[in-house]
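SEQUENCE WITH STRUCTURE:
===
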Amino acid sequence: MPFCPQCGTKVEAEARFCPKCGKELRGPTVNEQTTESVHEQASPEQVLFECEASGQNNVSYVLTNLRALIMNKQDRNNPFVISQCDLTQIVPLAQNKHKVRHDHGDQQTEIIYGDVSFMKGASAATIFYGVPGPDDIVNTVNQLKKSYFLD
């Protein structure tokens, strides 16, 4: 499902206007915002990873095949983008990793949590804090960049 290029709200693929901000969705959409050559190769925007930000009510980290977003979902019908970055212009880094053990009766599982910094030059464009599988997110982004963006 695509997002409005102005406010970041999820919109139906066939929508003419954003239901939140009223932006006309004809012409370039979020799927066409970066470079045309990238989007000629890329499929429509799809959510690949989403989780709630720990300790922050109504805030979610979202990774699509085109961008990384931090979204406020206080109003479920009208979520909005707090921060975002285009995957073509970043380098993902997994940092501050630690294992957490979960006991489930006789079974015990270990999950690795950490931060994923989406670096643009020497600065972090967006950071996902305390997410499960930070290395998996980094690997997914790097694979997307190789597949779609011919890194």
